[in-house]
């Protein structure tokens, strides 16, 4: 997601704008740029990659007091310097967050008027259109008003005009934008945390309102260009609390975003029960290898069950740190899928490179746009989880599960299966709003727990168990239910929590038998199922909605994440930053 920061005032502008941009990093971006006024002219600097790359090019102590900056998350056109913002066309320079849906039509109109365009972006039509309208009205405010009447889509804009380098203009529709002030000047920003190092006084710009920021004041106008008064708000909190919203932890916030993440990921690839062209054609492959680490590897296990269930394609799933060193049996009809939230995990990247060296086609399933894995794979499919800050992955896992299930449908060519996603969002919301306290209460005092399940439920056990151990530091083991009696059952003591996941009706009775075996040895059984079974082999039951097997894991994971969260909270753990862990594991 793109981000905008601007500053005009009596302090040097660049340190403030760069500081704001760094705060916006959490939104994800692949390039950054800045425009600033110096010696009565406008300078633009842009760089691909991290803000540090831009920082190195800039003298932050530059004598400039007017600046707008941007982090770009590529939508139209590759992440490169030309496509990065700010964009200048004619007398106008613009930073933009959002998407202009009718940019092709506007571009055609402006080309006829003699304008030319350098970038592949939708954004570049905005400064050109402003310039065109300004050439008619000779008034910046009028040209902004006329321009936004023509723009369709969502936008938050920071604008500077060569004829008026003593003001920054801002306007929004759909995308958020705030205006803020400190003792020395005025800011615009995509969100509150980005300016909290300097001030906590801000106003929210409403749809189509135009802000005009000067060195000594800001004014807000409606679409009739009449000045309006808006109530200033005071943010009472830290940048961290601003980003967490009303949630106590990022992990909880991110779990609660899963309804949206599901919808965004699905809608990015599917429209009206058909795949969009965002999903490539994979017809030629008859063998699949799925590679990942940790949770991403567990998504691979879910993928294996689903792809093998709905196609005749055999799937090998392997942890990346093993795959990169072993002998792999693949040929030109094999597709190697690398799953990685961060797109930077060293072992996953090395496994991808190995497959590429062997000239095998590679597909990356990645969350972070522009990351190394996404850049190096032959195809990249992004999950639409948005930035994930808690170290333990939750919403990205769910998004990856949605996408791998869609790949199973794609490989099967059975588009009827796409109907199975219909009511999921409602079920996700219901699961998110349930109370998981009693399950956490039953677990949190123990030092050992077991998760058991078969087939796809076992893949969920792996992730549920990892979530519990990494956030609460309780030793937890996931087992294929039928294997328990071959040794591990000797660890079951009085009261040991055993969580059984049973959503596959074909083998539910088998897993129930295993739960009875542990119950007979005095385990504390938590039975998670989508079936209506009422017996006495469990101590607690958690009922999941009954949906098609294809989409069941998208729901099954939610209670497991929330139980892990509740247990970690009861044990007073550092939930968002568990000990010894890092969000992006870039070492072997
Ligand atoms: C667990 C977790 C890790 C990651 C693993 C791979 O909650 O987050 O197990 O899944 O380190 O990371 P990515 O997906 O970034 O390659």
Structure, described:
α9 runs parallel beside α13 (395-412). The chain is of the alpha/beta class and 588 residues long. The model has no long low-confidence stretch (mean pLDDT 94). 34% of the residues lie in helices and 25% in strands. The structure holds fructose -6-phosphate (F6R). Residues 293-296, 340-342, 345, 348, 392-393, 466, 470, 584-585 line the site of fructose -6-phosphate.
Key traits:
588 residues; alpha/beta; 18 helices; 25% strand; elongated; binds fructose -6-phosphate
Going by helix content, strand content and strand pairing, the class is: alpha/beta
N→C terminal distance: 30 Å
User: How are strands sequenced across the largest beta sheet?
Assistant: 3-2-4-1-10-9-11-15
Number of strands: 27
Number of helices: 18
Q: Which outline best applies? A: elongated
- Rg from Cα: 27 Å
Give the helix proportion (percent range): 25-40%
What hetero molecules are bound to the protein chains? fructose -6-phosphate
Largest sheet, if any? Answer: 8 strands, antiparallel
Bin the strand percentage. 15-25%
Uncertain stretches of 5 or more adjacent residues: none
Nearest-integer average pLDDT: 94
């Amino acid at each position: 997601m793109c981000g905008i920061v601007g500053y005009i005032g009596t302090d040097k502008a660049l340190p403030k704008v760069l500081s704001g941009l760094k705060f916006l990093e959490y939104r994800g971006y692949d390039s950054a740029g800045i425009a600033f006024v110096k010696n009565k002219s406008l300078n633009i600097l842009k760089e691909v990659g991290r803000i540090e790359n831009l920082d190195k090019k800039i003298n932050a102590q530059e004598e400039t007091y007017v600046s707008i900056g941007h982090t770009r998350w590529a939508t139209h056109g590759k992440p490169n310097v030309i496509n990065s913002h700010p964009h200048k066309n004619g007398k106008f320079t613009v930073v933009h967050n959002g998407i202009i849906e009718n940019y092709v039509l506007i571009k055609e109109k402006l080309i006829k008027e003699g304008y030319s365009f350098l970038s592949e972006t939708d954004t570049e039509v905005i400064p050109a259109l402003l310039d065109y309208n300004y050439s008619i009205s000779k008034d910046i405010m009028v040209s902004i008003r006329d321009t936004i009447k023509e723009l369709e889509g969502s936008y938050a804009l920071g604008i500077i005009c060569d004829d008026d380098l003593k003001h920054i203009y801002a306007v929004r529709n759909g995308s958020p934008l705030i205006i803020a002030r400190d003792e020395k000047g005025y800011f615009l920003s995509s969100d509150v945390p980005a300016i909290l190092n300097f001030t906590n006084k801000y106003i929210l710009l409403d749809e189509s309102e135009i802000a005009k920021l000067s060195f000594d004041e800001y004014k807000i106008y409606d679409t009739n260009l009449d000045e309006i008064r808006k109530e200033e708000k005071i943010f009472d909190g830290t940048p961290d609390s601003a980003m967490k919203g009303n949630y106590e932890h990022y992990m909880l916030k991110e779990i609660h975003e899963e309804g949206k993440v599901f919808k965004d990921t699905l809608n990015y690839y599917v429209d009206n029960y058909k795949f969009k062209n965002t999903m490539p054609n994979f017809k030629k492959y008859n063998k699949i290898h799925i590679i990942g680490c940790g949770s991403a590897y567990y998504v691979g296990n879910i993928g294996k069950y689903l792809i093998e269930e709905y196609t005749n394609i055999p799937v090998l799933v392997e942890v990346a740190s093993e795959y990169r060193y072993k002998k792999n049996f693949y040929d030109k009809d094999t597709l190697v899928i690398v799953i990685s939230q961060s797109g930077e995990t060293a072992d996953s990247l090395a496994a991808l490179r190995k497959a590429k060296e062997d000239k095998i086609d590679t597909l990356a399933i990645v969350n972070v746009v522009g990351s190394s894995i996404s850049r190096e794979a032959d195809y990249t499919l992004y999950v639409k989880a948005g930035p994930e800050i808690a170290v333990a992955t939750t919403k990205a896992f769910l998004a990856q599960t949605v996408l791998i299930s869609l790949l199973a449908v794609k490989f099967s060519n059975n588009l009827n299966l796409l109907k199975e996603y219909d009511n999921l969002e409602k079920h996700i919301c219901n699961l998110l709003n349930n109370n998981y306290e009693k399950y956490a209460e039953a677990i949190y005092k123990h030092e050992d727990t077991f998760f058991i399940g078969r087939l796809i439920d076992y893949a969920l056990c792996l992730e549920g168990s990892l979530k519990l151990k990494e956030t609460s530091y309780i030793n937890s083991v996931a087992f294929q239910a039928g294997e328990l009696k071959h040794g591990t059952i000797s660890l079951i003591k009085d009261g040991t929590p055993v969580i059984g996941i049973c959503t596959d009706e074909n083998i539910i009775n088998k897993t129930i038998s295993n739960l009875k075996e542990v119950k007979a040895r005095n385990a504390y059984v938590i039975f998670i199922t989508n079936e209506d079974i009422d017996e006495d082999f469990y101590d607690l039951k958690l009922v999941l909605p009954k949906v098609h097997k294809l989409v069941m894991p998208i729901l099954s994971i939610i209670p497991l994440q929330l139980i892990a969260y509740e247990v970690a909270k009861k044990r007073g753990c550092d939930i968002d930053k568990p000990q010894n862990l890092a969000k992006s594991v870039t070492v072997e």
